[in-house]
């Protein structure tokens, strides 16, 4: 794993949270994107080398809606940049981590992604991210 790629924050409204985080970080939302497969609207902000992904549920059955219903708004996941997501998934499985998907899947911001179950990582949902085309 190379670095923290971004921190994902579950929010009720990307628009409202984007305004708050824009003021907090003194920067603007540089990209919004709908990930239909996950029923989520995302917005990205960057402050120096650090990125924040805001996640708004687009349906009641999305993982983000379920997260907010259970825990409220807040940090949803930490994402790590990897060079080879399939090799990293294989390594983590060998180390005993439980992955939430068997194959990498397309995610927001031109990434292939895979999630590590929070029960395997001390209660934290971990996302692996590989830039598509790298």
TrEMBL record:
Q: This chain belongs to which protein, by name?
A: Methylmalonyl-CoA epimerase
**By its UniProt entry, which PROSITE patterns does this protein fall under?**
VOC
Report the superkingdom from the record.
Bacteria
Annotated keywords? Metal-binding
Give the similarity note. Answer: Belongs to the methylmalonyl-CoA epimerase family.
What range(s) does the VOC domain occupy? 3-131
Spell out the InterPro entries in the cross-references.
Answer: Glyas_Bleomycin-R_OHBP_Dase, MeMalonyl-CoA_epimerase, MMCE/EMCE_epimerase, VOC_core
Which is one GO molecular function term here? metal ion binding
**Source organism (scientific name):** Mucilaginibacter oryzae
Q: One of this protein's GO BP terms?
A: L-methylmalonyl-CoA metabolic process
């Amino acid at each position: 794993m190379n670095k923290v790629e971004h921190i994902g924050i579950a929010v009720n409204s990307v628009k409202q949270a984007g305004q708050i985080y824009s003021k907090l970080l003194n920067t603007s939302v540089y990209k919004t994107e709908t990930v239909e497969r996950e029923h989520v609207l995302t917005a990205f902000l960057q402050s120096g080398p650090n990125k924040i992904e805001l996640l708004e549920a687009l349906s009641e059955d999305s993982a983000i809606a379920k997260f907010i219903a259970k825990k409220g708004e807040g940090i949803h996941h930490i994402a790590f940049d990897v060079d080879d997501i399939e090799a990293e998934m294989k390594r983590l499985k060998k180390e005993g981590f439980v992955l939430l998907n068997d194959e990498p899947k397309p995610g927001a911001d031109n990434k292939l992604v895979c999630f590590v179950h929070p029960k395997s990582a001390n209660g934290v949902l971990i996302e692996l991210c590989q830039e598509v085309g790298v």
